[in-house]
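Before going further, learn to read the protein records used in this course. A complete example follows; check for yourself that the lines match position by position.
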Amino acid sequence: MPNVDMIDERVDRRAFLAASIASVSTVMATTASAADTAKPDLFPPEFRREKIDTSGASINVMVGGNGPPLLLLHGYPQTHVMWHKIAPQLASDFSLVIPDLRGYGDSSKPPEGENHIAYSKRAMAQDQVEVMEKLGFTRFGMVAHDRGARVGHRLALDHPNRLSKLVLMDILPTLYLYRTSNHKFATAYWHWFFLIRPAPFPETLIANSSDFFLKSLIGGLIPNAITPEAYGEYLRCFRDPGTIHGGCEDYRASATIDLAHDEADIDHKIQCPLLVLWGEKGFLGPNYDFLSVWRERALSVNGKGIPAGHFLPEEAPDLTLAEVRRFMQS
């Protein structure tokens, strides 16, 4: 049987990745074009779409509402659309900024750089600070889910004066989860270990069956939690080979450079008030003590479980909205 590590060393990964993306792009060109023209608008007409250039990316943003500024960040494998069920209600109380993270949705997909630095949570957090500043907000609240919540954790450490309050949904610190990883965690979070494999291995497999792969992650939530219209948007974006690669790079960064950053900041704590919400029917909620873990990483922590799985804003929008609004307005 061939040695997989030796094969990895002999393959010119960059050339192989470029060729793989080119071939997949050709096959998908017609489908992607049709999807772009049919893209539904899942936000009220008073929301506007902007493209904002940061020092490292071009960020697609939905902006709407009136009141104190509030930044909403999505996770994998989604886009800003994941907030469409609660954004209209929040917009009556807050000025909402709802971006696609770099590497996701309609934001740009910059080259990963050495040691995946362009997809470090530090770089992704810097995008959000610059987006908010260009919109006139130097201090703001943040609500973040999944990968976006990891960006939020890093933003709170790197830019403590920017955040007034922070809500993190259904995550525990990346360093903590890698340090405590066991068979149970690896089985439930298998994608953490699949997506970090060297390019173009996961990219090629995902691109060859993007709809199947996406449904393996969130298909069970259609149509009750994730609407067919929202899934159509997720799939439109997920069929872009750049998005597939960007998502993999996000996870590769978390397993490399992000851990180095987290180790260096192990004694630094989140300064602003923190609300943590978790899904009582997901994997993390029943298996970890959220409040105990986060109290090691933040000065002021409150939180509670929501009777849902991982995707709180879509599975339990009313309860999630109530908790976010209560915390942000207190």
